[in-house]
Design a protein that fits this description.
The protein is an all-alpha fold. It is about 70% helix and about 0% strand. The longest helix is centred in the middle third of the chain and has 21 residues.
Amino acid sequence: MVRSKNASLTWSDVKTALLAFDRVALQGLVQDLYTASKGNQAFLHARLGLGHDQLQPFKASISRGISPDLIKGQPISVSKAKKAIADYKKAIGRPDGMAELAIFYCEEAFGFLESCSIEDERYFAALIRMYERSLEFVLSLPSAERPTYLQRLDKLRSRADHIGWAVEEELNSLWYAAAPDEHQGE
């Protein structure tokens, strides 16, 4: 099927084109994608289970977005930090990895807030939403895997008392609504 030049292409068009590739050509295409960006490299390493720390490139992206070096003029980018988690989910999406990245996001955000003073309501709202997602990810794990993650989330609640913007109250509300202590026996 030939599309007009103005029609937008879809995944079906790509799949159809890939049918013409032999194994060597397909490997060449994947190699080209691999060398095109660090994001593609992180995706392939995670998807294929390569390397000893598959979360490291995703954590580095989270850190750059949520806890930038302001002295070097690096901008805050909540969306880039959240995109790193979404990219990991697409690559492999293991529940324990999702929990780790979401909690890491919160820890990095708290470190950033403790080191500088910002007054950005969207930043605080994103932190609260990520804390909520962290709880959801952790509570979806088998009960034997939860304690270390829950300890980290509980520690974040105590760090929130110096942040302001009602962050502590929101985190406490989320914590008690999720009732992680009650989920421990599941």
